[in-house]
Design brief:
Blueprint (H helix, E strand, L loop, with lengths): L17 H15 L2 H5 L7 H14 L4 H8 L4 H10 L15 H13 L7 H10 L3 H23 L3 H25 L4 H11 L5 H9 L6 H11 L5
Helix pairs in contact: 1-3, 3-5, 4-5, 5-6, 6-8, 7-8, 7-9, 8-9, 8-10, 9-10, 10-12
Length: 236
């Protein structure tokens, strides 16, 4: 039965809200390349506006390390999470792996995984992958460890002897720690096992090879599919 003609329609978002308007203004500033206008919103009273300002400055190519460091200490979860996602390599993100909010930890682990030639976060990523209560955080940390292990392996096998020498025992230790945690992750949830498989495939190690092969018989079909793709064999 249709409502009477004068019946009110469903409630719509209030686009006249001041915070919404400021957030939109920050986004538009980013698309226009107006970093000065975008920067004005970094200290806005609304957390969503501050987060939008970070993204706008990044789009402009004008987001500074100092601005990111300031945002990482913001009271608002969304701002800290956005800052972690956008942090340049010179910003130390390792302390954010201990953030009280799981979504910030997850975003931080993912961002550190993009820095795949940096062994410094491995110890803390191992802690998150092994012990964090939130499975998404463990999954993100496992993925990061796999990416970093692959990056460190590239350095070890690369032609630059000076880079290999500088890496030294620190990279060997980081890879060894990552391997142990990735092997342990094969006892975790299916989505985490899938991530761990991708990391283990980077290792020329009998235990890693055995774990990948054993996953052809994993109880989860998607885990079996990943193992089959890595090994180039059909799966049931």
């Amino acid at each position: 039965m249709s409502p009477p003609p004068d019946a009110p329609g469903p409630a719509l978002p209030d686009h006249t809200d001041d915070a919404y308007a400021r957030r939109l203004e920050a986004v538009v500033a980013g698309h226009r390349g107006d970093s000065e206008a975008a920067a004005q919103f970094l200290t806005d009273s609304d957390a969503d506006v501050r987060a939008a300002a970070l993204g706008a400055l990044a789009r402009c190519g004008e987001l500074s390390a100092a601005q990111v460091r300031s945002a990482l200490s913001d009271d608002a979860t969304g701002v800290r999470r956005r800052a972690a996602e956008l942090a340049p390599p010179e910003v130390d993100l390792i302390p954010m792996l201990s953030d009280a909010d799981a979504s910030v930890v997850e975003a931080t682990a993912a961002a550190l995984g993009e820095r795949d030639r940096d062994a410094a976060p491995v110890r803390e990523l191992c802690r998150v992958a092994r012990d964090h209560d939130d499975p998404l955080c463990r999954e993100s940390a496992v993925a990061a460890l796999g990416a970093i292990a692959a990056g460190l392996d590239t350095i070890a096998a690369g032609p630059d002897s000076a880079e290999r020498s500088a890496a030294g025992a620190g990279h060997d230790d980081a890879r060894a720690r990552s391997l142990e945690v990735l092997l342990a992750a094969m006892e975790d949830r299916p989505q985490i096992r899938r991530r761990a498989l991708l990391g283990l495939h980077q290792f020329d190690d009998d235990r890693a090879v055995d774990a990948v092969r054993a996953s052809l018989d994993d109880r989860d079909r998607q885990v079996r599919a990943v193992a089959g793709e890595l090994l180039g064999v059909p799966v049931r």
